[in-house]
Amino acid sequence: MHDYFICPNCGAQVPDNALACPECGSDEETGWSEDTAYDGLYLYDDEPLSGSTSSHSWTKVATAVLLIVIAFAVLSTVLGQWGFYLALILAGGAGIFYYITQIRPSSPSQREEALYQDLRRKARGDTSLVERLIAYEQRRNPRASRQQWLQDAITRWERDNR
After folding, report:
1. What's this model's pTM, rounded to 2 decimal places?
2. Using CB atoms within 10 A as the burial measure, which of 34, 49, 94, 133 is most buried?
3. Where are the chain's structural domains?
């Protein structure tokens, strides 16, 4: 028994439980046409979409805190009281540098471009699929910004392709 079937549009192997063809994006709900606009496709509307949050940022913060604690311990052990002050100055400088380069939000256009490139990477470079996903999110929430549509499309992609 097969766990896949052949897409009538492009001939790719589609897993039985897939919502759409991974190659061309066509699906059963839209008649396996090449121009899929996701009209009528059930995409878990009962689940709220949230921004794609991950524990990755918390891991970075925990690592930074651990490194700072180790630096304080080593410098104060090696250099005594002056080592503690030196570690304090270095930690403050590192914190300011981190704030300037990482925490302070970049421009909205840079954030939007990064989200678009992330979605495009997830779609394996298929720009037309990315545009269809954005168009679907736009129809679903017309008052949102393009950045929100991109975030929702990424969240939907990640949820549907687990």
Report:
1. 0.39
2. 133
3. 1-42, 56-103, 107-162
